[in-house]
Amino acid sequence: MRPNQNHKKNQIPFVNRRVCMNYIDGKLVESGSKENLDVFSPIDGTIISQLKAGNSDDVNTSVESSKKAFEKWSQTSVKSRAEILFNVRELMKTKMDELAEICILENGKTIDESKAGIAKGIELIEYAASLPHIIGSANLEVS
After folding, report:
1. H helices present in 1-143, as ranges
2. Widest Cα–Cα separation across the chain
3. Does 130 score more than 70 pLDDT?
4. For residue 122, what are the CA distances in angstroms to 49, 87, 116, 127?
5. 108: region left, alpha or beta (phi > 0 left; psi from -120 to 50 alpha)
6. Who's near 5: CB < 8 A, 6+ residues apart?
7. Contact criterion met (CB below 8 Å) for 140 and 77
8. pLDDT of res. 136
9. What is the pTM of this model?
């Protein structure tokens, strides 16, 4: 379904149209599919990007990669996990404007709505990283 086309085109920031790839096993990979799917701006209906329609091989590769990642993550200490989350938080703060532009393009939000949503995401990351301290379980290994 195409979005409403009644919005002004000049509301959309610069878009570098490209075909998005899958992120599997820590790297960007091409889909095995030949079919492209258009991504439409909810602001004015223009095509802002394209995706490859994934296929069963893409899904299977992703699932197997996720199983391996889960095994590794489950062996990661609480301290290391919290450090990773705090690094993500810092990246989100640093890239706030860039992330906000992506939210505008993909969701049709205003800049203020986009930044508020990102700020809420940062807040949730801070909360998740602090949960081990809040719970206070004696069973948590931190190193």
Report:
1. 56-74, 78-94, 96-107, 111-135
2. 58
3. yes
4. 26, 11, 10, 9
5. left
6. 44, 45
7. no
8. 60
9. 0.70
